């Protein structure tokens, strides 16, 4: 039996002024599914996933998350964003707060958890991403890979129903990439619903169920992982793969 859709994107159009950045984008992500979104720079990948948790407004179409329309004026955007965790290219941690306090702040402010409960959750998640020893440090004292793992733990502290990743390894030194991807692979294997904008095709091959290929604001391909890598049907995707895959 097919899993229910967690994220549904239907005929979404978005403009920046007169420039159309998303053109009639339609796709869905089932509960527990991992979907990788790839394509050349400027193709609309990051904009698409930012529309999912209303970080970017869009002018036409519809997006629902777990049955709730993200454009519904009655929904609380902080609560929506707590349920749909987001990890950015740049870690977006609060530099003046300790690592543990970075994990506790939104739990207390948005979810209303007490300090002790938030700290216990934060400490457990830092242990999970192998950073328990760094709880009292400040973000600036950590490497880029460590900061990105803190950012993932911070998103998980909100008990999200889905996770969005916007090129989470592109700002990292090469030797730090795997430590972040390992955490993401583990999340995928545990059944977290994920949309991941990335150029890490090894990650896509390992854990993605589907691959969405975008170009010039359009979803050009939306297919099962093996079909995308072995028999992409568009010339544009074939060109992209020939440049990005190392043979």
From TrEMBL:
It is a peripheral membrane protein. Keywords: Amino-acid transport, ATP-binding, Cell membrane, Hydrolase, Membrane, Nucleotide-binding, Transport. Its EC number is 3.6.3.27. Residues 7-241 form the ABC transporter domain. Pfam families: ABC_tran (PF00005). GO terms for molecular function: ABC-type amino acid transporter activity; ATP binding; ATP hydrolysis activity. Its main location: membrane. It is found in: Cell membrane. The keyword Transcription does not apply. One of its GO terms (cellular component) is plasma membrane. InterPro entries: AAA+_ATPase, ABC_ATPase_HisP-typ, ABC_transporter-like_ATP-bd, ABC_transporter-like_CS, MetN_ABC_transporter-like, P-loop_NTPase. The keyword Transport applies. PANTHER family: AMINO ACID IMPORT ATP-BINDING PROTEIN, GLUTAMATE_ASPARTATE IMPORT ATP-BINDING PROTEIN GLTL. Belongs to the ABC transporter superfamily. This is ABC transporter component. It comes from Rhodospirillum rubrum (strain ATCC 11170 / ATH 1.1.1 / DSM 467 / LMG 4362 / NCIMB 8255 / S1).
């Amino acid at each position: 039996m097919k899993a229910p859709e967690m994220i549904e994107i239907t005929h979404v159009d978005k403009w920046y002024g007169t420039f159309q950045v998303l053109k009639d984008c339609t796709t869905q992500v089932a509960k527990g599914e991992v979907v990788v979104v790839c394509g050349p720079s400027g193709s609309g990948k990051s904009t698409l996933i930012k529309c999912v948790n209303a970080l970017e407004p869009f002018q036409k179409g519809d997006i629902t998350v777990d049955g709730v329309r993200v454009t519904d004026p009655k929904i609380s955007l902080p609560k929506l964003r707590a349920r749909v965790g987001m990890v950015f290219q740049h870690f977006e941690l609060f530099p003046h707060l300790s690592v543990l306090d970075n994990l506790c702040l939104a739990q207390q402010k948005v979810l209303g958890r007490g300090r002790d409960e938030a700290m216990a959750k934060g400490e457990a998640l830092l242990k999970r991403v192998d950073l328990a020893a760094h709880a009292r440090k400040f973000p600036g004292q950590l490497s880029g890979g460590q900061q990105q793992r803190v950012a993932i733990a911070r998103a998980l502290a909100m008990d999200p129903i889905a996770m969005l990743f916007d090129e989470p390894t592109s700002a990292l030194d090469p030797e730090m990439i795997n430590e972040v991807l390992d955490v993401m692979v583990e999340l995928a294997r545990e059944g977290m619903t994920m949309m991941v904008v990335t150029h890490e095709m090894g990650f896509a091959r390992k854990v993605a169920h589907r691959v969405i290929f975008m170009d010039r604001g359009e979803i050009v391909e939306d297919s099962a992982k093996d079909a995308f890598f072995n028999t992409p049907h568009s010339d544009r995707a074939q060109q992209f793969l020939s440049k990005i895959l190392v043979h």
